[in-house]
Backbone:
């Protein structure tokens, strides 16, 4: 098991290495003049030359890349080109918002997708299956921001059922400590605020979770149907087990395997989707920050965010794969 | 001498009532897109306590469906049990509730399947899977069930069962897994063991060992055995009585000696002629000229007539039924006068056939 984890961690190194090259190229080969971006109206030829010297922009690209890689290895993810604030400090303030949103979406997608998939599998080829398939097709094909806007218009503006902006009612002037609203409100002993934070989380989670919901539903359905036809399920029935036990112990236990992998892979899509969702719902997280950074051509922020997201994606999938290894004895010692 | 009388009386009573399973006019149909497949089409037979019986026939003739119908393991729909009774110890299994049937499965009737590689659940240890059945039917504690699992592995000749019991199916060879399946099937002391092609997926040397094992445990436990196979060689070595099945019907029955040494039905004769020589066992039998009739378009008369070297006038017109024969051991107009047919049957005695000729 330990060997497996170590091997997986080592396997992640070339991926991150490759990514650092891509990100470096992306920033340095992008058209546009960093001087104008940073200095704006204060741009003079003189100031620009000084800046280029300071940032080492006149060195050969390989030297610049090695310098970049060196700072990454030291854990230095750079600072904003605009206001010089260190990336990591700013990132850590905003990341809890994105985590909360992503987890909300995941709870929505998994909590609804798995029962729906099982339902569709049990009634495969019936009208019920058709309805579930239609819903999931809809979920996959509608863009996140379109669904987000529809939800805002219908449930927020139209029906007024749920808040559509921010993470908590701004008028309450709640000061967050850890930046996890759900945790902070509870720590502060304010269940009323907790409920308010949850209500704020609902629509963005649905918008962001719709695609993973569709995918998880379909994978669960397919997986349950496939496992149901396995010989060992017939063996289980031939033993005289109850249908329920056959379902839970013999079908679901195996059907889970592909589903877990897919859930892990969704995390990448969720982080990407969070950027759009946060913008639509004025959600204070990394996504909105990055959108602002792109607008400001604050490329360090963009570059480092992508790198950190990729790292998170790798780690989450490692965790999922370890969980998979525990669920599946066939690869436990591989 | 009153004592012996009281001892023998119940023994005689049970001897008179020794039919364990009686299948009457069973019909299992599959409703599929192209129409209806009559996979089992009026099958009757019985199995006595402790009897060993072989069900043989070409691929697709309905052997597995017969077994799965008895176990009530078919999905309905697409399957439909169109008629029949399955009397097991006096109760018609087809009328039992799902709960009552569950108590029969694994407990009174156990089944072994063809594919040992896929018939065990990959995510549980073999001990878990055996103990699961034991705990269910015998109301034993987890610990007792686990010990019972070890014992049943030992009983099927697995070395070091204390270690094997903790292993997962993928850690075992095919032959070993089939032993596990047998151990699992026997763990609850069933009265009837149905083995559906238990050796087909195994290689030749392992096949012989597994057959030997099945025979051996059958001897030891006295359970009745229904062995399904398309390999007459397997039947000859393992069972006393044979049912020959063709296109959803039983076409010939008798003892192994009668049926294999002196077959009546031309189909049985064809099967015998097509037994592969040593070293080629385990291959599908398809050497009888022609193919199994299209299930959506069965011949009007005898199902075997289009392939039969002895077919004569009534065969194309009238459908022979084994129940109507006298004695009822073969469904063939060569042995029974065809109704309304002007042509008399060519009664042929059982005669020897040279195997593999
Ligand atoms: N689920 C099903 N749906 C439709 N048709 C089926 C189904 N199961 C079996 N059949 C049909 O029933 C017939 C009998 O099949 P069965 O599996 O009993 O054959 P078999 O004698 O066991 O053959 P084999 O030696 O290949 O195992 C075949 O024509 C098969 O196509
Ligand atoms: Mg079969």
Residues:
């Amino acid at each position: 098991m330990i060997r497996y984890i170590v091997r997986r961690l080592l396997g992640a190194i070339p991926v991150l290495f490759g990514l650092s090259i891509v990100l470096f190229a992306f920033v340095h080969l992008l058209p546009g003049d960093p001087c104008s971006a940073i200095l704006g109206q204060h741009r003079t030829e003189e100031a620009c030359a000084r800046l280029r010297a300071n940032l080492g922009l006149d060195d050969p690209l390989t030297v610049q890349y090695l310098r970049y890689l060196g700072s990454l290895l030291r854990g230095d993810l750079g600072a904003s080109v605009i206001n010089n604030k260190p990336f990591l400090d700013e990132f850590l303030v905003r990341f809890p918002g994105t985590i909360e949103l992503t987890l909300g979406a995941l709870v929505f997608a998994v909590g609804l997708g798995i029962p729906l998939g099982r339902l569709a599998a049990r009634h495969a080829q019936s009208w019920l299956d058709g309805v579930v398939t239609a819903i999931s097709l809809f979920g996959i094909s509608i863009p996140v921001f379109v669904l987000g806007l529809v939800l805002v218009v219908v449930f927020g503006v139209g029906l007024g059922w749920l808040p559509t902006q921010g993470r908590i009612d701004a008028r309450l002037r709640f000061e967050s400590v850890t930046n996890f609203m759900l945790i902070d409100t509870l720590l502060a002993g304010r269940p009323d605020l907790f409920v308010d934070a949850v209500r704020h989380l609902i629509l963005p989670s649905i918008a962001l979770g719709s695609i993973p919901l569709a995918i998880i539903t379909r994978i669960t359905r397919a997986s349950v149907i496939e496992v149901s036809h396995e010989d060992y399920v017939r063996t289980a029935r031939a033993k005289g087990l109850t249908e329920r036990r056959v379902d839970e112990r013999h079908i679901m236990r195996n059907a889970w395997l592909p589903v877990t992998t897919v859930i892990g892979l969704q995390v990448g899509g969720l982080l990407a989707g969070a950027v759009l969702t946060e913008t639509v719902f004025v959600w204070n997280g990394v996504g909105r920050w990055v959108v602002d950074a792109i607008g400001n051509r604050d490329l360090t922020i963009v570059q480092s965010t992508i790198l950190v997201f990729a790292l998170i994606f790798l780690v989450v999938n490692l965790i999922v794969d370890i969980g998979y290894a525990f669920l599946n004895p066939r690869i436990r010692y591989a | 001498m009153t004592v012996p009388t009281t001892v023998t009386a119940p023994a005689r009573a049970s001897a008179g009532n020794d039919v364990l399973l009686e299948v009457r006019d069973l019909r299992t149909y599959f409703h599929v897109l192209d129409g209806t497949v009559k996979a089992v089409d009026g099958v009757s037979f019985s199995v006595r306590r402790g009897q060993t019986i072989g069900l043989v026939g070409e691929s697709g003739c309905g052997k597995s469906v017969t077994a799965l119908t008895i176990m009530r393991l078919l999905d309905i729909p697409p399957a439909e049990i169109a008629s029949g009774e399955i009397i097991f110890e006096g109760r018609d299994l087809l009328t039992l509730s799902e709960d009552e049937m569950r108590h029969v499965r694994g407990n009174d009737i156990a089944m072994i399947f063809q594919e040992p590689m896929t018939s065990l659940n990959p995510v549980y240890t073999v001990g878990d899977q055996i103990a699961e059945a034991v705990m269910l039917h015998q109301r034993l504690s987890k610990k007792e069930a686990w010990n019972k699992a070890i014992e049943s592995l030992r009983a099927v000749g697995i070395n070091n069962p204390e270690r094997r019991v903790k292993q997962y199916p993928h850690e075992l060879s095919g032959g070993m897994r089939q032993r596990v399946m047998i151990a699992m099937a026997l763990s609850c002391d069933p009265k009837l063991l149905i083995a559906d092609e238990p050796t087909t997926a195994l290689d030749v040397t392992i096949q012989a060992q597994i057959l030997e094992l099945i025979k051996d445990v059958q001897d030891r436990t006295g359970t009745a055995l229904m062995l399904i196979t398309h390999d007459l060689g397997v039947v000859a070595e393992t069972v006393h009585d044979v049912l020959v099945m063709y296109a959803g019907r039983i076409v010939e029955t008798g003892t192994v000696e009668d049926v294999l040494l002196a077959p009546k039905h031309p189909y049985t004769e064809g099967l015998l002629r097509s037994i592969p020589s040593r070293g080629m066992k385990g291959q599908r039998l398809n050497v009888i000229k022609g193919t199994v009739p299209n299930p959506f378009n069965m011949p009007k008369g005898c199902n075997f007539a289009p392939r039969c070297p002895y077919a004569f006038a009534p065969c194309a017109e009238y459908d022979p039924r084994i129940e109507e024969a006298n004695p009822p051991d073969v469904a063939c107009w060569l042995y029974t006068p065809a109704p309304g047919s002007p042509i008399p049957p060519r009664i042929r005695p059982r005669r020897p056939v040279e195997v593999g000729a």
User: Anything to note?
Assistant: Residues 204-221 of chain B form the longest helix (18 residues).
